[in-house]
From TrEMBL:
Keywords: Signal. The keyword Signal applies. The keyword Signal applies. Residues 1-20 form the signal peptide. InterPro entries: DUF2147. This is DUF2147 domain-containing protein. It holds the Pfam family DUF2147. Residues 25-139 form the DUF2147 domain. PANTHER family: BLL5882 PROTEIN, BLR1215 PROTEIN.
Length: 142
Protein backbone atom coordinates (compact mmCIF):
# COMPACT_ATOMS: atom_id res chain seq x y z
CA UNK A 1 0.00 0.00 0.00
CA UNK A 2 2.76 2.41 0.93
CA UNK A 3 4.70 1.58 -2.26
CA UNK A 4 1.59 2.28 -4.36
CA UNK A 5 1.14 5.65 -2.68
CA UNK A 6 4.80 6.60 -3.25
CA UNK A 7 4.56 5.52 -6.88
CA UNK A 8 1.49 7.71 -7.42
CA UNK A 9 3.17 10.70 -5.74
CA UNK A 10 6.31 10.19 -7.85
CA UNK A 11 4.30 10.01 -11.09
CA UNK A 12 2.31 13.11 -10.14
CA UNK A 13 5.50 15.09 -9.44
CA UNK A 14 7.10 13.84 -12.68
CA UNK A 15 4.08 14.88 -14.78
CA UNK A 16 3.89 18.30 -13.10
CA UNK A 17 7.61 18.87 -13.61
CA UNK A 18 7.44 17.86 -17.27
CA UNK A 19 4.52 20.19 -17.90
CA UNK A 20 6.18 23.06 -16.03
CA UNK A 21 9.27 22.77 -18.21
CA UNK A 22 7.37 22.91 -21.51
CA UNK A 23 6.71 25.96 -23.67
CA UNK A 24 2.96 26.03 -23.01
CA UNK A 25 1.96 29.16 -21.13
CA UNK A 26 2.20 32.93 -21.32
CA UNK A 27 5.42 34.67 -22.35
CA UNK A 28 6.44 38.35 -22.40
CA UNK A 29 8.00 39.54 -25.63
CA UNK A 30 10.68 42.23 -25.52
CA UNK A 31 11.10 44.95 -28.16
CA UNK A 32 14.52 44.56 -29.82
CA UNK A 33 15.15 48.28 -30.21
CA UNK A 34 13.82 49.66 -26.90
CA UNK A 35 14.32 46.67 -24.60
CA UNK A 36 10.80 47.24 -23.22
CA UNK A 37 8.10 44.61 -22.75
CA UNK A 38 5.93 44.57 -25.84
CA UNK A 39 3.27 41.88 -25.54
CA UNK A 40 2.12 38.68 -23.89
CA UNK A 41 2.02 35.65 -26.19
CA UNK A 42 0.12 32.57 -25.05
CA UNK A 43 1.54 29.31 -26.39
CA UNK A 44 -0.79 26.33 -26.46
CA UNK A 45 -0.87 22.78 -27.82
CA UNK A 46 -3.51 21.57 -30.27
CA UNK A 47 -3.49 18.17 -31.99
CA UNK A 48 0.17 17.58 -31.17
CA UNK A 49 1.35 20.93 -32.55
CA UNK A 50 2.10 24.21 -30.80
CA UNK A 51 0.66 27.63 -31.54
CA UNK A 52 1.10 31.09 -30.05
CA UNK A 53 -1.38 33.94 -30.05
CA UNK A 54 -0.98 37.53 -28.92
CA UNK A 55 -2.97 37.54 -25.68
CA UNK A 56 -2.26 41.18 -24.82
CA UNK A 57 -0.37 44.16 -26.19
CA UNK A 58 1.52 46.15 -23.56
CA UNK A 59 1.50 49.90 -24.20
CA UNK A 60 0.42 49.86 -27.88
CA UNK A 61 1.18 53.04 -29.84
CA UNK A 62 -2.48 53.25 -30.89
CA UNK A 63 -5.64 51.61 -29.57
CA UNK A 64 -6.71 48.28 -31.11
CA UNK A 65 -3.92 48.01 -33.71
CA UNK A 66 -4.51 45.80 -36.72
CA UNK A 67 -2.16 43.66 -38.77
CA UNK A 68 -2.35 45.87 -41.86
CA UNK A 69 0.65 44.30 -43.60
CA UNK A 70 -0.38 40.69 -43.00
CA UNK A 71 -1.62 38.62 -45.93
CA UNK A 72 -4.72 36.54 -46.53
CA UNK A 73 -7.29 36.14 -43.75
CA UNK A 74 -4.99 37.89 -41.28
CA UNK A 75 -4.89 41.17 -43.24
CA UNK A 76 -6.54 43.85 -41.11
CA UNK A 77 -7.12 41.46 -38.21
CA UNK A 78 -6.65 42.79 -34.67
CA UNK A 79 -3.16 42.02 -33.38
CA UNK A 80 -4.58 41.03 -29.99
CA UNK A 81 -5.84 37.50 -30.54
CA UNK A 82 -3.74 36.98 -33.69
CA UNK A 83 -2.09 33.55 -33.92
CA UNK A 84 1.52 34.45 -34.74
CA UNK A 85 3.15 31.03 -34.15
CA UNK A 86 1.75 28.09 -36.10
CA UNK A 87 2.49 24.39 -36.33
CA UNK A 88 5.55 23.87 -34.15
CA UNK A 89 6.39 20.25 -33.35
CA UNK A 90 8.54 19.01 -30.48
CA UNK A 91 11.76 17.39 -31.67
CA UNK A 92 14.10 16.59 -28.81
CA UNK A 93 14.75 19.78 -26.84
CA UNK A 94 13.48 22.07 -29.62
CA UNK A 95 10.11 22.94 -31.10
CA UNK A 96 10.50 23.38 -34.83
CA UNK A 97 8.84 23.04 -38.23
CA UNK A 98 6.46 25.93 -37.72
CA UNK A 99 6.05 29.52 -38.84
CA UNK A 100 6.05 32.84 -37.01
CA UNK A 101 4.49 36.08 -38.24
CA UNK A 102 5.82 39.54 -37.41
CA UNK A 103 2.63 41.61 -37.02
CA UNK A 104 4.48 44.88 -37.70
CA UNK A 105 5.90 43.87 -41.08
CA UNK A 106 3.37 41.17 -41.94
CA UNK A 107 6.26 38.89 -42.90
CA UNK A 108 6.23 35.21 -42.08
CA UNK A 109 9.35 33.25 -41.13
CA UNK A 110 10.29 29.68 -40.31
CA UNK A 111 10.45 29.26 -36.55
CA UNK A 112 12.34 27.31 -33.91
CA UNK A 113 11.67 27.64 -30.18
CA UNK A 114 13.79 26.32 -27.31
CA UNK A 115 13.59 26.69 -23.56
CA UNK A 116 16.46 28.65 -22.03
CA UNK A 117 16.35 27.69 -18.37
CA UNK A 118 12.99 27.45 -16.64
CA UNK A 119 11.68 30.96 -17.32
CA UNK A 120 13.12 32.02 -20.70
CA UNK A 121 12.27 31.02 -24.22
CA UNK A 122 14.54 31.54 -27.23
CA UNK A 123 12.37 32.19 -30.30
CA UNK A 124 14.21 32.16 -33.62
CA UNK A 125 12.69 33.37 -36.88
CA UNK A 126 14.59 32.76 -40.10
CA UNK A 127 14.45 32.55 -43.87
CA UNK A 128 15.95 29.50 -45.57
CA UNK A 129 18.41 28.10 -43.04
CA UNK A 130 18.48 28.87 -39.32
CA UNK A 131 21.76 30.80 -39.66
CA UNK A 132 19.88 33.48 -41.63
CA UNK A 133 17.66 34.88 -38.89
CA UNK A 134 17.46 36.35 -35.43
CA UNK A 135 16.57 35.16 -31.96
CA UNK A 136 14.45 36.90 -29.37
CA UNK A 137 14.39 35.81 -25.75
CA UNK A 138 10.93 35.85 -24.20
CA UNK A 139 10.38 35.75 -20.44
CA UNK A 140 7.75 33.68 -18.62
CA UNK A 141 4.78 35.88 -17.68
CA UNK A 142 3.05 35.55 -14.31
Amino acid sequence: MRNSFLTIVFLFVAVCTANAQGIVGKWKTIDDSTGKEKSIVEIYEKDGKYYGKVAKLLNPSKPNPKCEKCEGDEKGAPIEGLVIIKGLQKKGEEYTGGKITDPESGKQYKCTVKLNGKDKLDVRGYVGISLMGRTQTWVKAN
